[in-house]
From TrEMBL:
Pfam families, A to Z: Plug, TonB_dep_Rec_b-barrel
Signal sequence annotation: 1-23
Record keywords, A-Z: Cell outer membrane, Membrane, Signal, TonB box, Transmembrane, Transmembrane beta strand, Transport
Transport is among the record's keywords: yes
SUPFAM superfamilies: Porins (SSF56935)
Localization per record: Cell outer membrane
Name used for this protein in its record: Iron complex outermembrane recepter protein
InterPro entries per the UniProt record, alphabetical: Beta-barrel_TonB (IPR000531), Beta-barrel_TonB_sf (IPR036942), Plug_dom (IPR012910), Plug_dom_sf (IPR037066), TonB-dep_rcpt-like (IPR039426)
GO annotation, cellular component aspect: cell outer membrane
Organism lineage string: Bacteria, Bacillati, Bacillota, Negativicutes, Acidaminococcales
GO molecular function terms attached to this record: siderophore uptake transmembrane transporter activity
CDD domains reported for this sequence: ligand_gated_channel
Family to which the UniProt record says this protein belongs: Belongs to the TonB-dependent receptor family.
Membrane topology field: Multi-pass membrane protein
Length: 729
């Protein structure tokens, strides 16, 4: 009760502190203006992207090789978040999940900028599963798209694997290769017809300051050439003790458009360092209840803890008309990264009293990665009777190499507990950093063919298949894996009226097995068997006035990987049957009233394991997956100067395996968090200024977060205040 009263008091104080900001004229402020103004429908020149009233989501999204389509024609759940959604809900010093969780299928499993992990429909994902301008595998667990260069985020939580071509199985330091339950495609900012020169300052946490530039111009007789430059400098302390984030990057987007072609080139360099800020744990206590979550401000890192990575990337997308109804396209990208980290065990183990286990170690790791992708193909349109065909044929190839060297300290030198922090005992030392060695390389080649058919005014049928040829070599043990498989995707949509769509879809995905990585595994370096998954979905989409609602039922079946505790801090990672996720999802977005916009939804997820070894785990829950979760974001705009935002995020109870517990499992409690924000538009002389303030986790809730299909879990971040000011020069 005391804690809640303190939280309410702090909230009142924060709101009181915010008010003078709007009348004082100047402030240190937040990345990309947290602007809550709600525009009417806008049609973009690039790709005919249409916004839903309220400006939070688009009515169109990219459907893989078929290009942009109306969400009413897409046979799976689709949510295309706009730049305004990103600016409204992002925390610049945190992971992109602060935006992604507006989609009810997505739940975050980490609030630390050290990680990009989240789950979609219960299945763990991270930056590696995101696409950039349609190019796969340009990000990974530590690195994800920076919010300041994002134009929109197309989130597909449904069966679409066969329309996206091949991708790498690499999951970086997370060693996974699980086929994703959906797709997240980030589209970068292009120059608009109206010039933009924007400067933003941010302040968040205990002393984290950021500066951002956003400059866009179009040139030429018909403004056919465009350039957009986005840069970031972020440095200072986060809201948890001793944690710091330092980021520097610059990105340039060049584009050319004409009657017969469109070309877009995006390239940039990034440099990211996170000091302290570790938030992952493992529980081995003799209890079926998790100890109370500690103060999320606590620090669990030794002095010198840092995770550092730098790299560069580029993408190129080109569409060329080669006939009246025939286009040729090329999509390509490359990403290189190198860096290191010093930290304590990536998931600190503690018992039922919150005391840290003697098996924890300190760690030094050096790594390097190289990912390259190229795709080319043709798209054509023709009619057969009443059927309009949109046919695509493409070939693509991906290349990936990964270098790593992990060196751990002796066990038994880390003590302390959750509530007082880590204590380093006699003999503790930081391991030396060693030169990384090549762990594996992978080359995948694919051929994708598809036909999206419009039959009359009411029927849409999509059929696609990717033939994937996979070649993987584990350089640690010399193991070579070759796979040839076909990934089918098909769907059907029926529109009895223009504003109602009933749909059904199916897809299958395949990926080489993960490489077991870590000295805590007795089978370190082993490559597990290939992983397969199937997904089915049926649903209905309804446009009513200025709102769009989607209701879906889905069924996902995938391979199950478990860690068996062998004692003494050692584990064996192995495949154990299948995991099945069946659920219902409701998504709603739009502007039901002139002054109100809402976004969010609910998800129910029934999950279980089956076909396990000897049936020992048949019918058991999937680790870290809650049955219920939901999000509701509301924006109120009383006039054209003010915007007020509120968001409630809730996640139900989940469980993890625990051989030490009397019941064989441990409960992770449910949680709910509240975010509030406000902005004000003013002028300093002739310069338009948007001043914003957002408070994440307003009630300062401390809670554990489950991680899909894993016995590890995350700790929340404390209440975080974000201030921003954006100047349109």
């Amino acid at each position: 009760m005391k804690k809640r009263s303190k939280g309410m008091l702090m909230t009142a104080l924060i709101c009181g502190a915010i008010m003078p900001v709007f009348y004082g004229g100047a402030v240190a402020h937040a990345e990309k203006t947290h602007s809550f103004d709600l525009p009417t429908i806008i049609v973009e020149a690039e790709g005919n992207v249409v916004e839903l009233p309220g400006g939070m989501v688009n009515e169109t999204a990219k459907m893989g090789v078929f290009g942009n389509k109306s969400v009413m024609e897409i046979p799976y759940s689709e949510m295309s978040m706009t730049q305004k959604s990103v600016e409204t809900f992002v925390n610049p010093a945190g992971p992109l999940q602060s935006v992604l969780i507006n989609n009810p299928s997505i739940r975050t499993s980490s609030t630390s900028p050290m990680y990009s992990d989240f789950s979609m429909r219960g299945i763990n994902m991270n930056g590696n599963h995101m696409m950039l301008n349609g190019i796969p595998s340009l990000f990974y667990q530590f690195a994800e798209p920076r919010s300041h260069f994002i134009e929109r985020i197309d989130i597909t939580s449904g069966p679409n694997a066969g329309v996206n071509g091949v991708s790498m199985s690499n999951n970086g330091t997370n060693s996974g290769a699980t086929p994703a339950p959906g797709t997240i495609n980030v589209v970068t900012k292009r120059a608009k017809d109206t010039p933009i020169t924007r400067y933003t300052q941010t302040f968040t946490g205990r002393g984290n300051f950021g500066e951002y530039i956003d400059v866009g111009r179009r040139f030429g007789k018909n403004k056919e050439w465009g350039v957009r430059i986005n840069g970031e400098y972020l440095d200072g302390e986060l809201s948890s003790r001793k944690a710091k984030d330092k980021e520097r990057n610059i990105f340039v987007n060049l584009d050319h458009r004409s009657e017969k072609s469109n070309t877009n080139i995006f390239l940039g360099h990034w440099d990211k360092r996170v000091y302290h800020g570790q938030r992952w744990f493992t529980f081995n206590g003799k209890s079926d209840s998790m100890p109370e979550a500690p103060n999320s401000k606590n620090n669990y890192d030794f002095d010198g803890t840092v995770k550092y990575m730098r790299g560069w990337m580029f993408t190129i997308n080109h569409d060329q008309k080669i006939g009246k109804n025939l286009d040729w396209f090329v999509n390509a990208g490359h990403h290189y990264r190198t860096g290191y980290k010093y930290n304590s065990s990536s998931a600190l183990k503690f018992n039922e009293f919150g005391k840290f286990d003697s098996s924890n170690v300190s760690n030094a790791q050096a790594e390097e990665g190289n990912n390259t992708y190229i795709q080319t193909g043709v798209r054509g349109k023709f009619k057969t009777g009443i059927v309009e065909h949109n046919v695509s044929l493409s070939v693509d190839r991906s290349y990936a190499k990964y270098w790593n060297n992990t060196h751990n300290s002796a066990k038994g030198t880390i003590g302390g507990d959750l509530y007082n922090g880590v204590a380093y005992l006699a003999g503790f030392e930081i391991p030396e950093l060693r030169t990384p060695t090549l762990q594996w390389d992978e080359v995948n080649t694919g051929i994708t063919i598809g036909d999206s058919m419009k039959i009359g005014k009411k029927w849409n049928v999509s059929i696609a298949a990717s033939r994937k040829h996979e070649n993987f070599e584990n350089k640690v043990n010399g193991q070579k894996i070759k796979n040839n498989n076909v990934l089918p995707t098909y769907g059907i949509t029926y529109q009895p009226t223009e504003n109602i769509a009933i749909y059904a879809g199916h897809t299958e995905a395949f990926s080489r097995g993960s490489v077991v990585s870590g000295t805590k595994y007795v089978n370190d370096g082993e490559t597990l068997d290939p992983s397969t998954s199937k997904q089915n979905e049926i649903g209905v989409k309804v446009k009513s006035g200025k709102t769009l609602t989607t209701f879906s039922l889905f069924d996902i079946d995938q391979q199950s990987v478990i860690d068996t505790d062998l004692g003494g801090g050692m584990y064996r990672r192995a495949i154990d049957g299948r995991e099945r996720f069946r659920g219902a999802e409701l998504t709603f977005n739009g502007k039901p009233h002139d002054k109100w916009t809402f976004t969010g939804g609910l998800m129910y997820l029934d999950n279980e394991r089956r076909k396990t070894a000897g049936g020992a785990n048949d019918g058991k829950f999937v680790n870290g997956v809650a049955k219920w979760s939901g999000v509701l974001g509301l924006i109120y705009e009383p006039d054209d100067k003010w915007g007020i935002m509120g968001r409630l995020v809730a996640c139900g109870t989940s469980y993890i395996d625990n051989a030490s517990s009397p019941t064989g499992k441990t409960r992770i409690p449910s949680y709910a968090t509240l975010d509030l924000g406000v902005n004000y538009k003013a002028k300093m002389g002739k310069v338009p200024v948007t001043i914003s303030a957002t408070c994440f986790n307003v009630l300062n809730k401390d809670y554990w977060m489950g991680r899909g299909s894993s016995t590890t879990f995350g700790l929340s971040m404390p209440r975080t205040l974000l201030l921003s000011a954006t100047f349109d020069l």
